[in-house]
Specification:
Strand order of the largest sheet: 8-7-6-3-9-10
Radius of gyration: 22 Å
Number of domains: 2
CATH superfamily of the largest domain: Creatinase/prolidase N-terminal domain
Order of helices and strands: HEEHEEEHEEHHEHEHEHHH
Structural class: alpha/beta
CATH class of the largest domain: Alpha Beta
Number of helices: 10
Length: 282
């Protein structure tokens, strides 16, 4: 029995190496270490092409999806919002990221980014927020994208891992502007002073306690908007139709997953627990 278990463990380790070679690896924002000298002395909170060329090519925000595709998603979404509520001239769309959840003091659960936020910008750090609102007439598109991210704090980054900061976030995602999260309250306040009778698009029914929730609630409490809409249906409608890049990525993911299932089934037998599979595959 001992020899069978040893053979099984060796097989699973070989499988794990194969999966890593194919790029199937989970990255957590609190454990990525980047060599500062590689990208103009700047650390990032997620993989980028310069630090992980085996996973991402130039201009890719996440594997397989480029900055231009994220821009197209944001543009299509904003056009859909304008058509849905056509009587209003101005629209502002607010998408908070997920926040960290802790199982005990200073020990977080594995982080999973908010789906809509990730779909629209590809930024993988917690406690961030994306805003889309009308652009000016001189712009070549219908909206401005502003990403608010955690401020770089070297002391905290020693424990939690590097943060991209505003400059890094703009470089990674290709949004029009990137600012520190501490600037969000002033930004929304100024927007409400400069606009009136606008439509706010925000998932007000979300149960997730995001870092920015209090600031957004304060913005809504001023009641300078004429309508409050949820953007979820619009985002879901966009996601129904897949781009060529998304289809290719889905095919690759399915292929890797299928190979992994086949290899696991080859070496599974009575007495092997699910926890064993989990430990080896991670």
């Amino acid at each position: 029995m001992a020899s069978k278990k040893l053979h099984f463990i060796k097989s699973m380790l070989h499988l794990r190496r194969c999966l890593l070679k194919n790029g199937l690896r989970r990255f957590h924002t609190h454990c990525i270490v980047v060599e500062p000298s590689l990208v103009s002395n700047h650390n990032f909170g997620q993989p980028v092409a310069q630090t992980h060329p085996h996973l991402l090519s130039e201009e890719e925000v996440v594997p397989g999806i480029r900055k231009t595709e994220f821009k197209q998603r944001r543009m299509k979404l904003f056009i859909s919002a304008q058509k849905r509520v056509s009587l209003a001239k101005d629209h502002i769309m607010i998408f908070p990221s997920s926040t960290k959840s802790y199982m005990s003091y200073d020990i977080p659960y594995l982080f999973r980014q908010n789906t809509e936020f990730l779909y629209l910008c590809g930024f993988q750090e917690p406690d961030s927020l994306l805003i889309l609102h009308n652009g000016n007439k001189e712009m070549d598109r219908n909206h401005i994208s502003v990403l608010f991210v955690p401020k770089k704090e070297p002391q905290k980054e020693l424990w939690d891992g590097p943060r991209s900061g505003d400059a890094g976030a703009k470089l990674i995602t290709g949004v029009d502007q990137a600012k520190n999260m501490e600037d969000l309250e002033e930004y929304l306040y100024q927007y409400s002073r400069d606009h009136e009778n606008f439509v706010v698009w925000h998932n007000f029914k979300s149960s997730e306690q995001s870092h920015s929730q209090g600031i957004v609630q304060q913005f809504l409490a001023e009641k300078r908007h004429v309508d409050l809409q949820s953007p979820l249906n619009l985002v879901h409608q966009l996601r129904v139709v897949k781009s060529d890049a998304e289809i290719d990525l889905m095919r690759k993911s399915n292929s890797i997953t299928s190979e992994a299932f086949v290899e696991v089934m080859k070496f599974s037998h009575a007495g092997v627990s699910i926890s064993t599979f989990y430990i080896i595959s991670n």
